[in-house]
Design a protein that fits this description.
The complex is a heterodimer of chains A (283) and B (307). Helices cover 81% and strands 0% of the residues of chain A. Chain A has 283 residues and is mostly helical. The longest helix of chain A is centred in the N-terminal third of the chain and has 36 residues. Chain A starts with a helix and ends with a helix. In chain B, a hairpin with a 4-residue loop joins strand 1 and strand 2. Chain B has one domain: MetI-like fold, CATH 1.10.3720.10. Chain B is mainly α and 307 residues long. In chain B, helix 1 packs across helix 14, helix 2 crosses helix 14 and helix 13 runs antiparallel to helix 14. Helix content of chain B is 76%, strand content 3%. A two-stranded antiparallel ribbon of chain B has the order 1-2. Classes of the chains: A mainly alpha (283), B mainly alpha (307). Chains A and B meet through helix 1, helix 4, helix 5, helix 6 and helix 7 of A and helix 1, helix 3, helix 4, helix 5 and helix 6 of B.
């Protein structure tokens, strides 16, 4: 008896040690990036590389402070928040209908969601470019806000459907008996009750929109350029200029808010990313 | 009670048909915005792509003009670069998906062990999968740099020779798989972990009583019970992997040569570097058909396994 518990303890300790080492290995690249962004240029290229150095904010001040980069942050924020808000409003209504109302179109929506996940975005963005260019819709915030909903709404529908199924029906029944229309009951009673879940969904959408490259790369060129696009440009230039300082500084500023958000909504993150696909596997 | 009944009693006669009509149409008010947006942004572009792939594109009016038949498809199918990108895509999928699944399942099993810090470790595993793909690509480009990269430094510490990770034709795709695996394995870990946590503990306990060690419990008890979770993790990862673009675009740009040019990269180059929208559209159509066909097969397969 005593032997098995000792063995168990040893096993747990070994598993704990191994998982800490593995976790550290997965985090090392990010730690390296943050550390590099705080080094002076000569220390970045010191051999051997060092983890003890005099931290400096010179890259943040010199490059991240540039008006051009700041405007790209603002673009990314506008587009991420705008498209996420639109997706949450539109998609949650659909998620509610799927959860509560009997309707014929449910199969169509499930199919649309699976289709949206199986289409490589390049197949969408080439025709979008061809249609938007003659209409003068390229390089506008609103264009990205609307096109981003094509991949955000499916997630919202699926996540919010889950929240609404879990919500007690008593409240809305009372509102409906009181003479509220479904739509009225939805906006006045149901939406406020589901707010915490929808806020998490919104954050989830912001993460996806914030990270998006392909749509922004093709549909913008000057005014509405987002951070991933300018980072990709910077990464391509780094061969000649060795721009590691600005690249790591802007990279750090790009992922830090996302990591904070992600730790907030960790409970929903994995289910969210799996949404729709697992439905396809089980239906 | 009286107020409600009185109100209902007064109005029901007048508005009953109208109210029934409303009850029938109201659900569609809820789904209509979603359906309209998704049809406009998903289905319409697909048909436009199909049309463009069968037309001669007029760059003056910037629209598909005359009918071209299957000429663009013929050209695509005779294009060596297209087939090379198909091979690269297949190699990437065949290397990355099994690797990430195997690593993900094993690490999930490891971190499913409860100890005082296990919650923190699980939370930290979220970080790689939310790192912006562009940042992941550029960060690893620096880490894998032949001269100043940290990876080569670690390699020389243990007595190895510096390696041209991204510049060597034979190694570049492997490097891309490493970057992709770094970013996506944590996602598999967390899906599988959620599956392990929600498993029925009884069979595991029974196996323990019967004297099965941890490896036997994992292989013979836990793994079979996890089959549905593993299948859906595979499906999700497959759906993500066929969209592979950002990491390659930043880390290698498809090079050296076209060693890492997956099909998405090649379509992008054909459309926006060669400005051949018709051929890009034809390839998009083929790509979408292949993606749908395989996705359908995998879903069918998982149904079959479940049965």
């Amino acid at each position: 008896m005593a032997q098995t518990t000792l063995k168990q303890k040893l096993g747990t300790t070994a598993a704990a040690a191994a998982s800490v080492v593995l976790c550290a290995a997965f985090l090392l690249p990010v730690a390296w990036m943050v550390a590099t962004s705080l080094k002076s240029t000569s220390e970045i290229f010191a051999i051997p590389p060092t983890w003890s150095f005099e931290p400096t904010l010179e890259h943040y001040q010199r490059f991240a402070g540039q008006a051009r980069i700041v405007s790209r942050y603002i673009n990314t924020i506008i587009i991420a928040i705008g498209s996420s808000a639109l997706s949450v409003i539109v998609g949650s209504m659909c998620g509610y209908a799927l959860a509560r109302l009997r309707l014929r179109g449910a199969g169509v929506i499930a199919t649309l969601i699976l289709v949206s996940r199986a289409i490589p975005p390049i197949a969408l963005v080439v025709p979008m470019y061809l249609v938007f260019r003659p209409l003068g819709l390229l390089d506008k915030h609103i264009t990205l806000i609307i096109t981003y909903t094509s991949f955000l709404i499916p997630y919202v529908v699926w996540l919010s459907r889950g929240f609404f199924i879990a919500l007690p029906t008593a409240l809305e029944d009372a509102a409906l008996v009181d003479g509220c229309s479904r739509l009225g009951a939805y906006f006045r009673i149901i939406l406020p009750t589901a707010l915490p879940g929808l806020a998490a969904t919104m954050i989830f959408c912001i993460i996806l929109a914030w990270n998006e490259l392909l749509f922004a790369l093709i549909l913008t060129n000057r005014e509405a350029v987002t951070i991933p696009v300018s980072l990709a440009g910077l990464a391509a230039d780094t061969e000649q200029g060795a721009l590691w300082g600005p690249l790591t500084a802007i990279g750090t500023l790009t992922v830090l808010p996302i990591i904070v958000f992600a730790l907030f909504v960790q409970k929903y993150l994995v289910t969210g990313l799996a949404a729709g696909a697992t439905s396809g596997a089980t239906n | 009670m009286t107020r409600l009944e009185a109100l209902g009693g007064q109005t029901s006669k007048v508005t009953a048909p109208r109210r029934n009509l409303r009850r029938v149409f109201e659900p569609y008010v809820f789904i209509l915005p979603t359906v309209i947006i998704l049809i406009t942004l998903l289905i319409y572009p697909l048909f436009y792509t199909l049309q463009a792939s069968l037309s001669n594109f007029d760059t003056f009016t910037f629209s598909p003009a005359t009918f071209a038949g299957f000429r663009h498809y013929e050209r695509v199918l005779q294009d060596n670069n297209f087939w090379s990108s198909v091979r690269v895509t297949a190699a990437y999928l065949l290397a990355a998906l099994p690797l990430q699944l195997a690593l993900g399942v094993s690490i999930a099993f490891l971190i499913s062990v409860q100890w005082p810090g296990s919650k923190i470790v699980r939370a930290l595993f979220i970080i790689p999968m939310v790192v912006t793909p562009v940042v992941a690509g550029s960060m690893w480009k620096m880490l894998l740099d032949p001269l100043w990269g940290y990876v080569n430094y670690l390699l020389t510490l243990i007595g190895g020779k510096p390696v041209l990770w991204l510049a060597d034709t034979n190694l570049a795709l492997i490097s891309v798989v490493i970057i992709d695996t770094w970013r996506w394995t944590p996602f598999i870990i967390l899906i599988i972990l959620a599956g392990i946590v929600s498993l029925d503990p009884e069979p595991v306990e029974a196996a323990k009583v019967d004297g099965a060690n941890w490896l036997q419990r994992f292989v013979y008890v836990i793994l079979p019970m996890l089959r549905p979770v593993i299948l859906s993790a595979f499906l999700v990862r497959w759906l993500g992997a066929i969209k592979m673009f950002d990491i390659i675009y930043t880390a290698t740009g498809g090079g050296p040569g076209n060693a890492t040019e997956v099909i998405n990269m090649y379509i992008y180059d054909t459309a926006f570097r060669s400005l051949s929208f018709e051929r890009a559209s034809a390839m998009s159509v083929l790509m979408v058909l292949a993606a749908f066909a395989f996705t359908f097969l995998f879903i069918r397969f998982s149904h079959w396994v479940e049965r």
